[in-house]
């Protein structure tokens, strides 16, 4: 087996067939990993050309030192490779699993440009960090000297967790508030376990908890406390809620039984993976087993839905997207994986109606690409008189996410937002319209990638640290006077 495929095989426990626990899969893979993973990682890493301009690092939002830790891996210096990778990322094994490398580092690999296939950077990153956890190289979070100031972080997704870690390192008391019963945000409930195993997320959260970060789970701002009350509790606040409001589709039958939102579907599947009782899954409403499934959408969330449906034993899975393959926003690697697993893509199609009080079929119109829109992409338009129909027992709407109406939900009308509902921040300080309240991640930039959320969390932590130090100096002068 080629080094690339073997590395992917031995470092992706979820690729193993059968519905067994992560511990059982890990035990089965240990012998294989010991035999093949290190040579495979070194083989891939040795392919790095060490080019003069490291386009891979340039196109990584975290600007990871990719050529350097690839060189260390090729030399068998895995601990040093991990330490270098970890120096720029708070979650390297998570990014290694879920980053769309084909659009970022690997897509800009010089070897890829030459037609010989990119170095599998993500797989190597995942492997060296998993090795670090197994070998005990991952050090605990050590807080800096106590500063006597506290920070409240609203949202336990990647932006909030990254910022919380940096702020705790700087010596602040950090409290993280999240509406869910587990931290991690979309890492926990929005991304399926075959792409991101949940123990991988939970061990990162536990490391933060053991480092003194206080998590308030099941805490909903607006219900359990207003934003104003949290501001009185803490010296600074970070809004890192992400964006969760599903984009609507206005067609007849939208409210029919069996027509569901992508996040509801993925959350139910992930909760079952945790062993939770999920009535909407157990009664069949959010379980694709034995059903004709139609997913509407073309992004990474749509790919997560179609691949989850395959694993649940769907009778058939179709993905409807209104543009063609070349204009699909999701990862082409994910599309290829879905096709290999049996998903049928129906390009240039958009739903006209969902038929039945309990959905039985999807009627769709064929589309064609017209003139370019404001973004430069050719806009889809209906191809008249060209309709099709597909059987459907479960329709999953995966059209993306928008911001919730935070000023209304939090009783904070003074919080400035854009016309899209995202929070307005000063581009330099990352502070909102409220003094001492900062924001970062998708709630500022709109729905984006996990790696960008991590980068935003790091950036906002630096700005908050600067602001809090200045505030502490002013307070000291007043006391001295």
What report would you give on this structure?
The protein is α/β, with parallel strands linked by helices and 481 residues long. Helices cover 40% and strands 16% of the residues. The protein has helices at residues 3-10, 22-45, 55-58, 66-74, 78-86, 92-98, 110-113, 121-135, 158-169, 186-189, 198-210, 227-233, 262-274, 279-282, 300-311, 332-340, 406-409, 442-445, 450-480; strands spanning 150-154, 173-178, 214-217, 236-239, 245-246, 259-261, 292-296, 316-320, 344-346, 349-355, 361-372, 378-391, 394-397, 401-402, 437-439. The strands form 4 sheets. Strands 3-2-1-4-15 form a 5-stranded parallel beta sheet, sandwiched between helices. A 5-stranded parallel beta sheet has the order 6-13-7-8-9. Helix 5 packs across helix 8 (121-135) and helix 15 (300-311) packs parallel to helix 16 (332-340). The termini are far apart.
Topology:
Blueprint: H1 3-10, H2 22-45, H3 55-58, H4 66-74, H5 78-86, H6 92-98, H7 110-113, H8 121-135, E1 150-154, H9 158-169, E2 173-178, H10 186-189, H11 198-210, E3 214-217, H12 227-233, E4 236-239, E5 245-246, E6 259-261, H13 262-274, H14 279-282, E7 292-296, H15 300-311, E8 316-320, H16 332-340, E9 344-346, E10 349-355, E11 361-372, E12 378-391, E13 394-397, E14 401-402, H17 406-409, E15 437-439, H18 442-445, H19 450-480
């Amino acid at each position: 087996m080629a080094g690339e495929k073997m590395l992917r095989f031995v470092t992706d426990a979820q690729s193993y067939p059968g519905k067994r626990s992560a511990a059982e899969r890990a035990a089965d893979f240990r012998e294989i990993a010991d035999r093949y993973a290190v040579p495979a990682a070194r083989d891939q890493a040795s392919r790095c050309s060490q080019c003069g301009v490291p386009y891979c690092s340039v196109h990584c939002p975290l600007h990871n030192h990719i050529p350097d830790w690839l060189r260390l891996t090729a030399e068998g210096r895995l601990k040093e490779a991990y330490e270098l990778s970890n120096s720029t990322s708070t979650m390297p094994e998570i990014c290694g699993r879920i980053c769309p490398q084909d659009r970022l580092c690997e897509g800009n690999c010089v070897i890829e440009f030459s037609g010989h296939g990119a170095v599998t950077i993500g797989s190597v990153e995942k492997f060296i960090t998993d090795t670090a956890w197994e070998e005990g190289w991952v050090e605990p979070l050590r807080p800096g000297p106590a500063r006597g100031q506290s920070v409240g972080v609203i949202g336990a997704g990647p932006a909030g967790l990254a910022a919380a870690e940096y702020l705790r390192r700087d010596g602040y008391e950090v409290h993280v508030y999240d509406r869910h019963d587990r931290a991690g945000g979309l890492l926990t409930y929005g991304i399926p376990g075959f792409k991101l195993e949940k123990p991988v997320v939970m061990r990162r959260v536990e490391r933060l908890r053991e480092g003194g970060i206080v998590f308030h789970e099941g805490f909903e701002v607006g219900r359990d406390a207003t934003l104003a009350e949290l501001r009185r509790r803490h010296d600074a606040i970070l809004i890192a809620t992400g964006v969760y409001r599903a984009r609507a589709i206005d067609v007849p039958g939208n409210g029919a039984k069996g027509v569901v939102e992508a996040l509801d579907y993925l959350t139910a599947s992930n909760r079952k993976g945790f062993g939770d009782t999920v009535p909407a899954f157990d009664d069949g409403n959010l379980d694709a087993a034995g059903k004709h499934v139609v997913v509407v959408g073309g992004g990474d969330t749509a790919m997560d839905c179609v691949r989850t449906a395959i694993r649940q034993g769907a009778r058939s899975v179709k993905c409807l997207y209104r543009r063609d393959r070349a204009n699909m926003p999701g990862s082409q690697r994910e599309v290829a994986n879905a096709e290999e697993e049996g998903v049928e893509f129906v390009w240039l199609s958009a739903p006209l109606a969902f038929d039945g009080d309990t959905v039985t079929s999807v009627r769709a119109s064929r589309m064609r690409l017209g003139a370019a829109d404001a973004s430069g992409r050719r806009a889809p338009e209906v191809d008249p008189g060209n309709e099709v129909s597909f059987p459907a027992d479960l329709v999953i709407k995966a059209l993306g996410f928008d911001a919730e109406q935070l000023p209304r939900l939090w009783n904070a009308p003074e919080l400035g937002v854009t016309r899209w509902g995202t929070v307005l921040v000063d581009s330099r300080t990352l502070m909102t319209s409220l003094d001492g309240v900062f924001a970062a991640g998708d709630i500022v930039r709109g729905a984006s990638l996990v790696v960008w959320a991590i980068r935003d969390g790091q950036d906002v932590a630096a700005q908050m640290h600067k602001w809090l130090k200045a505030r502490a100096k002013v307070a000291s002068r007043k006391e001295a006077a």
